[in-house]
Amino acid sequence: AATMAARTPGAALRLCATVFLLEMAFCKGFVEDLDESFKDNRKDDIWLVDFYAPWCGHCKKLEPIWNEVGLEMKSIGSPVKVGKMDATSYSSIASEFGVRGYPTIKLLKGDLAYNYRGPRTKDDIIEFAHRVSGALIRPLPSQQMFEHVQKRHRVFFVYVGGESTLKEKYIDAASELIVYTYFFSASEEVVPEYVTLKEMPAVLVFKDETYFVYDEYEDGDLSSWINRERFQNYLTMDGFLLYELGDTGKLVAIAIIDEKNTSIEHTRLKSIIQEVARDYRDQFHRDFQFGHMDGNDYINTLLMDELTVPTVVVLNTSNQQYFLLDREIKNTEDMVHFINSILDGTVEAQGGDSILQRLKRMVFDAKSTVVSIFKSSPIMGCFLFGLPLGVISIMCYGIYTADTDGGYIEERYEVSKSETESQEATEESRELQEPRSGQSLVPARQEPKDVLEKKTD
Ligand SMILES: *[C@@H]1O[C@H](CO)[C@@H](O)[C@H](O)[C@H]1NC(C)=O
Ligand SMILES: *[C@@H]1O[C@H](CO)[C@@H](O)[C@H](O)[C@H]1NC(C)=O
């Protein structure tokens, strides 16, 4: 096909288009169009459903991916059925399932509805469907199986032991957190030899080429420990991940770098954070999460600040405060010192979620909206903001001249009551509304999520 494409690009293109069309028709066959009968018919099956709205852009983007998901689930013989429902036509059913935005992806299994919040790619969605539709706790009967799982999953949890109240708690935690991670159970013989267990039963997390044991007294509630430990110690951060890390309540130390810049300042900072994450794991892993982020766009919006790249920022995910160092971080000692001074309170926190900060956020969002409109289309910007400003200045001029005549207040009052003026005013306000809806241009923090809704029909 490649040589053919090289010889006759036109023909190849046409062929692709035909194959594409065929594929579309072919793929679509594996996604069921659901209607009101779904509510009664779904009971015996596990369903993966895309609740969409015909007008929504993100839904349209998801559609071809969804068709591929349907095809692949069918071809691998998955028991999970794939469907889609126009949530605007069947809004009462959609709202019963807790659909509040579009598109919403849910896996429905008996009385449980699991929300998918990850990246909308075929592989991620299919992985989610396998994980959530399968057994909540998967037994690992042999060392071979254990090794196999260790190769496949970067983070997973294992319960070791027989029946116990800890096991009940583990099952409860798993039913809530299966949307995020994997849960297994094993006997002591199956667990690798390097694992030493002081007590049985035990819950362990395997990650970062090592393992950690849950300690009921130090770590508190099992679910919240799992929520804190379900991430690798060092991560490539983006807005989505940073938002997810909010659940952990940990401090997040991030090297803000330009990944395309190969100069020593950038590469060194990344390896400093990696080293601290690895070498000081025992000291910091309970309170800290480490990683790097490419570019400062997102973080600037989050902090309402202009950070110079490269730099290190430490975020407190539980109160939205952050810490910056006024000096350059040149080696791991500098970084460890920085962390320790955050912990002992000698570095002052910035930001937070006080009323003042929220006001600042409003002003900041408004400003970035205006800037982004001007950047994407200067003419539109001039029209949106220039026109009202022009009108206002003409009005000011009018007021000023009226004032010199005296008694302008009464005059203004009468004028604003007249029909023509009020009509103009509403048109104006409509125009002023538009930039507000453009706020989605700003990569703001994502909405709160509900991971799991227990549904009783
Ligand atoms: C790379 O980073 C250094 C230090 O921040 C900076 O001086 C340099 O201009 C950057 N190079 C490129 C190609 O952006
Ligand atoms: C992070 O925020 C929490 C909640 O406000 C607070 O208790 C904790 O002390 C903060 N951590 C640091 C290091 O400032």
UniProtKB/TrEMBL annotation:
- Signal sequence: where? 1-29
Record-level Gene Ontology MF annotations: protein disulfide isomerase activity; protein-disulfide reductase activity
Specify the enzyme's EC class, one word: isomerase
Q: Which InterPro entries match?
A: PDI_TMX3, Thioredoxin-like_sf, Thioredoxin_CS, Thioredoxin_domain
Biased composition (Basic and acidic residues) is annotated at 446-457
Q: Which UniProt keywords apply?
A: Disulfide bond, Endoplasmic reticulum, Glycoprotein, Isomerase, Membrane, Redox-active center, Signal, Transmembrane, Transmembrane helix
UniProt name for this protein = Protein disulfide-isomerase TMX3
Origin species, per record, is: Myotis lucifugus
- Its encoding gene is what? TMX3
